[in-house]
Amino acid sequence: MTELSPPVANAAIWFAADGYDPAKGINGRRVAGESFLRGFFTHAGVDEFVSLSHATADHTAFAAMAKASGVTQPLRAVPMHAPSRLSPVDVVYFPAPPGPEEFWRRAPFGAAAWALCGITHTTATRAVMQSVFDMRAAPQMPWDAVICTSASVQHSLRTLMELAEDHLALRFPGATLPARPLLPVIPLGVCTDDFRPDPAGGAALRARLGLGPADIAVSCIARLTPDEKFDPFPLFLALEAAAPAFGAKGGRFHLLLCGQFRDQVWPAAFAEGARRVMPSVGYHHIDGGDAAERKATLSGSDIFVFPIDNLQETFGLAPVEAMAAGLPVIVSDWDGMKDTVTPEAGFRIPTEMPGAGEATHLSQRFLGGTDSYLQYLGQMSALTRIDVPALTRALVTLGTDPDLRARMGAAGQARARALYDWRAVIPQMQALWAEQSAMLAHARAAGGAGVARSDPARIPVGPAPDLMFASYPSRPAPDRAARHLRATDTGQRPGVAETFILRRYAASRRLIEDPAHLEQILAAFAATGAAGATIAGIAAQTRLSPGIIARGALWLAKYHFLEDAP
To answer: What is the DSSP string of 407-443?
Structure first.
């Protein structure tokens, strides 16, 4: 019996700066990606860090982030076009659910060549829903995984897969589908030390906004758009309803909205809505693009609110950050917050969505392209209820009870440090990667379909052009062994190098062949005289591969540096 090698609890990081750099635009996906990498570099017990990228610039950016995190282990860059160099690492980690193209990319190497591991962020886009369907039709294997950041999003992914499988069973009766990918629930993490309160910064913010010692700062850090994050009006209504109870204490509620507006229609809409709906409550907008302002907002607040009513959300990172800062939280009872916020740490406000059949027309309009993604999200938000009386009661309870605020803040901070710091989350991810690695080892030892390589020319979503477009040209390419080519008399016309430049091939950043090889191939053909030579003959003479000779000869013939010899 073959002895299996121990599983490797490491993953190569599929790296593109868009997935990890909030400087490209702050959103939950990039903030989570950047935080994950810092946590991974700091807390992973690995011998090396491996990046997998299309571009050298991305490998360089990965190395810079590793250096900034104090990494001392070796770094290894694997180009995307050569994934067979991943070994001994068995898993590739994506900052999103892996697209179907990644399963097809693996197919020529065998489905057990490596395992794929992605993670959920929003699952409401057409692209993500389509990719889950395509995943079940692609060569996805049971050792692949999609990390679900909450139990709710795990349920939604399972639903998508069940619907895909139901369709495929009807479409192809009797077909046997492979097992689904692993769908473990592992939360997003945070670097909890980043959120230690800065009392001086918090006090300075309160003074700047005109908040007195008896005032209660209720903050929310989020993207400020009703279409993609939350409708502020239920919160406005609840704060106004809670204001009289707190006013008896001699203070005032102030709402601190820290974030960025996606569209310029929203700053005035938020401000006017606040003025008209909650006149008894202070309203302040703070620039969420400034890290110092975000820190000051958490440090100067008494309560954190996150009344999400949007399908875009799947986890809810901001409440975990607020808990890490020691704040009591009030959140909607919605997707990931069901997992993260317990009664000891805060309040979860009941929510309600449309019943069966009441919103199907919206999903149909979205699917068919009548409504955009933002229109779909906005309409669903408009039909999602947050219990305003319950939200009001939670604000009154916390606003009037400083001891409860302190207890909940301390409990939330302890919970964030114990469960959601990357030092607790990264080992869970490494355990998953080790499980995937062990499954691969067993598959390789068993052999069979999981190990067999697919013919890259016959990948159904991207076959070789000579196969798919065989009927386009006048005739198939002549046999390499029988075809003779010879150099032509080019006279005073531009040579290979000048033609290459005149044609501006370098502008596309994709060269069909190295110009030096083209010059070498042409010189080799010219040396054979009028009789010419075969591809195989030139390959033997130049020691270049027959594939390079064949491609180079075709380019040279295209520009009539070569022609068929009689």
So the answer is: HHHHHHHHHIIIIIBHHHHHHHHHHHHHHHHHHHHHH
